[in-house]
């Protein structure tokens, strides 16, 4: 059964805030390293069906710049590797 996660990025202005939000909203393991490499590992190794929806992205994208671009590419790559994963971004 698919699990849907809605992650509101409004007010997120730093990569640390984003990582803290991911820890709060996703069932990440206790050993999660709070970085994009660790997120990729979790997303590609997860066997459950996850549908992750990021919304209110535009302000965070302005604040995070390259980090947000890397997050989007990482999620795209993870979806290609893990057929149980869907990730979408909405302004």
Automatic annotation (TrEMBL):
**Would you tell me the protein name for this molecule?**
Ribonuclease inhibitor
The family line of this record is: Belongs to the barstar family.
InterPro entries, alphabetically? Barstar, Barstar-like_sf
Which species does this protein come from? Butyrivibrio hungatei
Annotated coiled-coil positions are none
Every copy of the Barstar (barnase inhibitor) domain together lies at: 3-89
């Amino acid at each position: 059964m698919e699990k849907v996660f809605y992650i509101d990025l409004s007010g997120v202005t730093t990569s640390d805030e984003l990582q803290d939000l991911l820890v709060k909203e996703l069932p990440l393991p206790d050993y999660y390293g709070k970085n994009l490499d660790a997120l990729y590992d979790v997303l590609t190794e997860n066997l459950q069906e996850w549908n992750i929806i990021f919304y209110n992205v535009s302000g965070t994208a302005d604040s995070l710049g390259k980090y947000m671009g890397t997050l989007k590419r990482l999620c795209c790559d993870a979806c290609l590797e893990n057929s149980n994963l869907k990730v979408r971004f909405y302004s």
